[in-house]
Amino acid sequence: MQLRILTLNIWGVHYVSKLIHQRIQALIEHLINPDTNYDIVGLQEVWSKVDYIYLRDQLKSIYPYSYYFLSGLVGSGCCLFSKYPIIGAYEHRYTLNGFPHKIQHGDWFCGKLIGLCKILVNGYVINVYNTHLHANYHHVIPKDIYLGHRICQAYELIQFIESTSSADTTHLTILLGDLNLTNDDLGFKLINGILQLNDSFLQRINKDIFDPTVGNDGQTCDLLDNPYIHPHPYQGQGERIDYILYRARNDNVKCIEAYPTLHKVPNNPNGLYYSDHLAVYALFEIDENIPEKKPIPLDDIDIMDDETRNNLRSACIIVEESIQRIQRDRIFFALGVFILIFILFSFNNNSLLNGYLLTIFIILKNLFCLIGISISIWFIGLGKPVERNGLSSILNAMHLRLRVSQFFH
């Protein structure tokens, strides 16, 4: 039995992304093409439910089963289309997802999550997880204020998959989506090291099969020839941050092909591209003749190898530093409150201004100060404590895993 899977971040941010409707239509035409023949399609950044409904209605003749993960103010952006029945759906919204005052980034307003669809394929239960982690806007670790959040999201992803992919009920586990993590990032190493997932691109058998319009280096984002990207000072030839990862209960699943695809829309006179990301395609072969694998006794399981333990300790340090930053932030906002209160009750009698200008000046000054004081108090009393508790919760879970691993090492 063969299983064809595709994942794509469609870059569907209305009023920001370019040519959304044309690109979605081009994607639909590709998906309904008989030559493509995907079984499961996972999409990210479908921020508009109207776009999802349009996709669902246009694709239902080929993909009769679909699911949209609703979350947050503008949705999670994640959805899934399948030729096979979806028999269950679950989701976990990430505890931490950026900052509300970083409006230009927008992640806080999105309900980013990891969503699970349990799909029944010819008697096999396949858990397909779709996710989109927090973006990296700085690309340099010391300046990456979201690093602690992405580490925590990666660990929550690990916890969710561990809790929902029991070997007794799941034949195949597939994690797909935009992880916003390269192979060398700590979060990705934790996901691979703890969950023992296989990277379809690296584990593929036919390494000479690839999309000739893209190349065979595996890059999926920040490609120099994509007109939708915004170059940054530390950009190379591209990054690989979109993945299809998998793990089978038995040794009966092989990845035959896997490669990035869907770059430039073919035969389009306007030079249209599908997205600012590339899609990732994988072809799996499931041998139905291999007998069931016997469960391994817990005493014989090595929960983590030494490299993963060291990575987890490094993750703990990063989260601890994020917690320390919160205390500094609260002190900064407290100082801001005192300064704004001082300004609020000062400069109310300025002899250099006449009565009309003085009134306008006082109103604007007081309004600015009151807004600033309100925001600062919100951060001190609510925003930062919530972030601290979220970080502390994940940190405690990491420490617990490190302690437990000592009993099996």
UniProtKB/TrEMBL annotation:
Q: How does it sit in the membrane?
A: Multi-pass membrane protein
Q: Which GO terms describe its molecular function?
A: metal ion binding; sphingomyelin phosphodiesterase activity
Biological process annotations from GO = sphingolipid metabolic process
- Protein's cellular compartments: Membrane
Protease as UniProt keyword: no
Q: What class of enzyme is it?
A: hydrolase
Among its keywords, does the record have 4Fe-4S? no
* Keyword terms: Hydrolase, Lipid metabolism, Magnesium, Membrane, Metal-binding, Sphingolipid metabolism, Transmembrane, Transmembrane helix
Which residue intervals define the domain Endonuclease/exonuclease/phosphatase in the entry? 6-277
Cite the Pfam families for this sequence.
Exo_endo_phos
Entry EC number(s): 3.1.4.12
One cellular component term (GO) for this entry is: membrane
Spans traversing the lipid bilayer: 331-349, 355-380
Quote the pathway field.
Lipid metabolism; sphingolipid metabolism; Sphingolipid metabolism
What is the similarity comment for this entry?
A: Belongs to the neutral sphingomyelinase family.
Question: What name does this protein carry?
Answer: sphingomyelin phosphodiesterase
